[in-house]
Amino acid sequence: MKSVCGVEGVSAWGIKEGKFGLALIRASGTAAGVFTSNKMRAAPVEVMMERIERGALDAVVVNSGCANAYTGERGYRDAVEMCGVAAGALGLAPESVGVASTGVIGRYLDLPLIRDQCGRVAPLLARSADAEDAAARAIMTTDTFPKHALVKTESFAVGGITKGSGMIAPNMGTMLAFIYTDAEVEAPVLQDILRQATRRSFNRVVVDGDTSTNDVAFCTATGAAGRVDRAELARAVETVCRDLAVQIARDGEGATKLLEVTVRGAPDEDAAAAVARTVVASPLVKTAIYGEDPNWGRVVAAAGRAGVEFDPYAVSLRVGEIPLVRRGEIVADLGAAKAAMRGATVTFDLDLAAGEGKATAWGCDLTEKYVEINGKYTT
């Protein structure tokens, strides 16, 4: 059986009906998960924080249109029942099924609809054509395109799908990610690999600075390809997560440009990441990107409030290949800088000259469309 993202032992399908969608992904193996840092965790997150301790999953059921967040004890019971509904449709034990939700906060699940959709989706899991796309589209909310990634080596594969467009900030965002590999790996090792990959990918994306109640990233290893080199597997998982994270940033609500900020010369990697995230999160930087305005002072100003020690007059900054500051000296050619901001991707490279740390973060521009989307999200 081979379908989702080219990974052996994975099957999936999904359905989208207006704002409401449902996807089923069938894959048995060791499992790991990372979750939102928001204290207002949604019910499905609470359920999965408990279940992932088993270190194994046989399937995941995902709904879109209702977050099942801030729904109290009823929401928790509904999330558990949702697992049971999917398990019944797939012939599995309820405790072996994972659950995730995305959509409006403060609304209860429509369990009759979910039961009906599960009954219609489950028989289609044996399909191979378009399975990945059907599942990816089913979990979309304000996303404008389905997001998926694949890395194939000579001995194993890692693939995944994700959704995310708004309410995106470090420490996860309104994103759900489902990653699969046919490598054989123990659950604790897989957990370490996923946590590190998340730290260098999903946790470095900022669309609007909000951290969601529902963020999850699951990784299941079917073992079909046998034992593999741990370092090679870690690189592949990180590459897939990074690819998916960049797609989320590019598809930010109302976005017209991807913003990529690389910080080097920091005291360490964490410090570099802190500066890069601060820059991509700055509304002033984001609006300048939208207007193709070479107001590079906003970049250095944001870097200066990231809580990292460096000499402000030792830094170097460039946009694309155009130097703006060189070791504290202003060398900006504003015409050339503006031209470098005209494409679909705008990149800044900031050297703090304070160490060997390096990190990249991703975001997008901030446009009127973002306000339009979120000003009427529930109506």
Verbal overview:
With 379 residues, this protein is α+β, with helices and mostly antiparallel strands. 33% of the residues lie in helices and 30% in strands. The protein has 11 helices and 15 strands. The protein has helices at 43-51, 72-90, 111-121, 131-138, 187-199, 230-250, 269-281, 283-290, 297-304, 334-340, 368-375; strands at 11-17, 20-35, 56-66, 97-104, 147-152, 157-163, 176-184, 205-206, 216-227, 258-266, 316-319, 322-326, 329-330, 345-351, 357-364. Strands 1, 2, 3, 4, 5, 6, 7 and 9 form an 8-stranded mixed beta sheet that branches. It has a 7-stranded mixed beta sheet with strand order 8-15-10-14-11-12-13. Helix 2 (72-90) links the parallel strand 3 and strand 4. Helix 1 crosses helix 2 (72-90) and helix 7 packs across helix 9. It is globular and about 65 Å long. The two termini are 42 Å apart. Residues 166-170 have low confidence and may be disordered.
Overall spatial form: globular
Mean pLDDT: 92
Mind telling me the C-alpha Rg? 21 Å
**Largest sheet composition:** 8 strands, mixed
SS strand fraction: 25-35%
User: Counting H and I runs of at least 4 residues, what is the number of helices?
Assistant: 11
Give the tally of β-strands: 15
Class derived from helix and strand content? alpha+beta
| Portion in helices | 25-40%
Helix and strand pattern:
EEHEHEHHEEEHEEHEHHHEEEHEEH
What is the CA–CA distance across the termini?
42 Å
Which spans of ≥5 residues are poorly predicted at pLDDT below 50? 166-170
